[in-house]
Structure formats: structure tokens, C-alpha cells
Amino acid sequence: MKLWVTPQGDRWLCAECEQDCAQAITEQGWRMAFVKIDPMLRCAECKQGDVEIFD
């Protein structure tokens, strides 16, 4: 999961939603702050985690 600094505030995006938001990222000049692998994080767009937890 990547943390993006946007004009509207910071947003976590999964890899799939990052591709969907690619146009906004380039047009609005979003900056990636860092990458974190944490099963508790949720994407701001799809509300899903980037890591699957298997029981």
C-alpha cells in the first residue's frame, strides 16, 4: 500500500487503484510519501486491503 500526498490530503492506495487514479496522480502532481505493507491498512478508493490474511 502506498501513501500519496494529494492536494485534498494524504490517501492510501492499493496497486490496483493506483493504476485507476494514474491520470489524477500526474495531473494534480500527487507525491508518494512511502510504501508500507500492513494487513490493517485499507485503500481510500476501494476500501480493501492490499494484503490477504489467511486463517
Write a structural description.
The chain has a three-stranded antiparallel beta sheet. The chain is 24% helix and 27% strand. The mean pLDDT is 91. It contains two helices and three strands, in the order E-E-H-H-E. Strand 1 and strand 2 (9-13) form a beta hairpin.
Strands ordered across the widest β-sheet: 2-1-3
Low-pLDDT runs of 5+ residues are none
Q: Determine the number of helices (DSSP H or I, runs of at least 4 residues).
A: 2
**Average pLDDT rating:** 91
* Helix-strand string: EEHHE
Largest sheet: 3 strands, antiparallel
Instruction: Sum up the overall morphology in one term.
Output: elongated
Whole-number tally of structural domains: 1
| Beta fraction | 25-35%
**CA-based gyration radius:** 11 Å
Summing up helix and strand content along with how strands pair, one would put the structural category as alpha+beta
Distance N terminus to C terminus? 21 Å
Relative helix content: 10-25%
Quaternary organization: single chain
- Strand tally is 3
Present the secondary structure layout:
Elements: E1 2-6, E2 9-13, H1 15-20, H2 22-28, E3 31-35
Antiparallel strand pairs: 1-2, 1-3
